[in-house]
Write a structure and sequence with these properties.
With 356 residues, the chain is α/β, with parallel strands linked by helices. Helix content is 33%, strand content 22%. It has helices at residues 62-75, 86-90, 95-109, 139-151, 166-179, 200-208, 224-233, 250-260, 269-272, 275-287, 301-311, and strands at 2-19, 22-36, 39-48, 128-129, 132-134, 156-160, 186-190, 214-216, 238-240, 264-267, 291-294, 337-339, 343-346. Strand 2 (22-36) and strand 3 (39-48) form a beta hairpin.
Length: 356
């Protein structure tokens, strides 16, 4: 019989992580642990880490929801449980729990070794290219991060903008371009919805002077007509991020992409409802000739590993993903994930810490 339980860990940032929704000093991750009584040494583990200000399930009700999930699962006395049944079993409103349960089931099915998919990444023979993330902060802090990322060999940088005055942010981009031109370094920016529809066109024109690859979510979510118009006129390709959150109906997902027609979509399985939901977004995008990349949502290494291994199911070589968050916490789950010259790698022989 399968048995499910949960634990939690308060992850502490190495620095005050500034976002458009305020500073983060701590992020609570919840872990599902699944065992089969017939093979008690193997434990499948998945992570649910709702993100303040973004996740639909970041609510006071979440601790009770994960406890009830375990109770309902154990009451079912399941001998087996298909991964495909996880979304319906969790129910609506808890996307990070779906992601956690799917991950837990995938992990146990492969022996509880944190190797969810048999692909080149999980087998250690291929790396996933990633962007270097430059966090919001004052100009000296952002400048220091930029220098560190360039020295570490990243060929793609992503800057979060919208927290400083725009002139200062443009000056930082100018500094980067003075060191590395567009043929050497891809530059992405993430506005996290900081621009108004009225000011966005002029700001995008100014950003375009620095040969910016793309801009994530220039307008706050929920302004589809304005966003669609901006996608048609922008000199910089636009990527949707927050706009995808909470869109769970398959037909509505398709309608969103058809209406807005972004150049890219940014996929965060914790926020979108797990592995199957993310695969559906990818299929919809590719049917329409739209591109995509995967991004972690500040999970610990348990969740990051699941996102990275899902990414490894696709051909992403030469296109940087947003998976460089494993060094954010000083009490992260120890894992055989490591970054080398701007790429994330996995050592299948390396040790894993089991969260307690």
């Amino acid at each position: 019989m399968l048995r499910l339980r949960f634990t939690q860990r308060a992850l502490r940032f190495n620095f005050p992580a500034r976002t458009s929704r305020g500073d983060l000093a701590e992020h609570v991750a919840w872990y599902l642990h699944l065992v089969d009584d017939a093979y008690p040494a193997a434990v499948g583990i998945g992570e649910a880490a709702p993100l303040a200000g973004l996740s639909l399930d970041y609510t006071p009700a979440f601790p009770n929801a994960i406890a009830q999930l375990c109770e309902r699962f154990n009451a079912g006395a399941f001998a087996t449980f298909p991964v495909a049944d996880a979304p319906a079993f969790v129910g609506p409103g808890y996307p990070s729990l779906v992601f956690a349960l799917e991950t837990t089931l995938l992990d146990l099915a492969r022996g509880g070794r944190r190797q969810l998919y048999p692909n080149a990444f999980s087998q250690g023979t291929a790396a996933v290219p990633i962007n270097g993330l430059v966090w919001m902060g004052d100009a000296p802090f952002m400048r220091e991060q930029i220098q560190q990322k360039l020295a570490a060999g990243y060929s793609c940088l992503k800057l979060k903008i919208g927290s400083l005055d725009f002139a200062t942010e443009l000056a930082l981009l100018a500094e980067i371009r003075a060191v590395a031109g567009p043929e050497q370094l891809i530059l992405r920016v993430d506005a996290n919805g900081a621009f108004s529809p009225a000011e966005a066109p002029a700001k995008l024109e100014q950003l375009a002077a620095f040969h910016v690859h793309s801009i994530e979510q220039p307008l706050a979510a929920g302004q589809r007509p304005a966003l669609a118009a901006l996608c048609r006129s922008s000199p910089i390709p636009i990527a949707l991020d927050e706009e995808l959150i909470g869109v769970s109906d398959p037909a509505e997902r398709a309608a969103l992409l058809d209406e807005v027609r972004p150049a890219y979509i940014v996929l965060k399985p914790t926020l979108l409802g797990g592995h199957a939901a993310t695969r559906h977004w990818i299929a919809l995008a590719e049917e329409r000739g739209l591109s995509w990349w995967m991004t972690s949502a500040l999970e610990s290494n348990i969740g990051l590993n699941a996102v990275a291994q899902l990414t490894g199911e696709y051909d992403v070589q030469g296109f940087a993903q947003g998976l460089g968050t494993g060094q954010l916490y000083h009490n992260n789950i120890a894992a055989p994930l490591y970054i080398e010259r701007g790429a994330l790698r996995y050592d299948p022989a390396g040790p894993w810490e089991r969260p307690t």
